[in-house]
């Protein structure tokens, strides 16, 4: 069993299924923590549909899809916000496959994709309750930085300077 990662159209069946799984998990975690219940199904459908992932398409972005033994298992989106800065989004590994190194594989591939887009630094935002994600980013050299957006759910803004790419 092994991981592979490659670009994927944001509208593919696999990408849409993983986007739904990702959004459902982060939304439910927030609502359960703050309001004691899962996300309202109508709100969930509306919010999933509202973010098409349009910024994750060439020439200024890419959606990476990770597969575990050939099966879709995770994603990482990379989009340029300026000529030198890429933003990570939709970093997700399916719950049943966590702990098998998929997050590190995706993050490494996302950083390489950012370099290929011309970025010299990467940034992202995350929430305080997403402790697993914050630990992954810390292990990969991401550090807290200044607020770079006004997303109402963002509580941590992380950044990393990218070393020059391999050849």
TrEMBL record:
The UniProt GO MF terms for this protein read:
acyltransferase activity, transferring groups other than amino-acyl groups
Which positions fall inside the N-acetyltransferase domain? 17-163
What keywords does the record list, in alphabetical order? Acyltransferase, Transferase
Q: Which PANTHER family match?
A: AMINOALKYLPHOSPHONATE N-ACETYLTRANSFERASE-RELATED, AMINOALKYLPHOSPHONATE N-ACETYLTRANSFERASE-RELATED-RELATED
- What this protein is called in its record is N-acetyltransferase domain-containing protein
Source organism of the structure: Streptomyces aurantiacus JA 4570
